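Narrative summary of target 7.
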Amino acid sequence: MKYMMFVCSDTEPDADRENWPDIEAWVAENDARGRRLTGDVLAETTAATTVRVRNGELLVSDGPFTETKEVIVGFDLLECADLDEAIEVARTHPMARAGRIELRPFADLAPGD
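Modeled conformation, tokenized:
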């Protein structure tokens, strides 16, 4: 099952820095096990553009909404047997301590859905 793993910042990171996981080791292990299909770090929020259409009008603004404190800083596309395995992969990611991880399965949109 495929999961999108959103890697997000957080205003309250884990203060315990002992045994902090290494991102290169995390990537290498999950790539080798075939659980991480792709992933990358995103540019700073100052490079973001938000696009909306309201009442037929295109609204384009720089960055995320100003009140946003936690932002998506990266992503990984996972292939896991189930949610429990995806949680285990996310638990060992360094940003699970420095930020937060959101796991979301891909929707199964069969024709007619």
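The beta strands are 2-8, 36-41, 49-54, 57-62, 72-79, 100-105.
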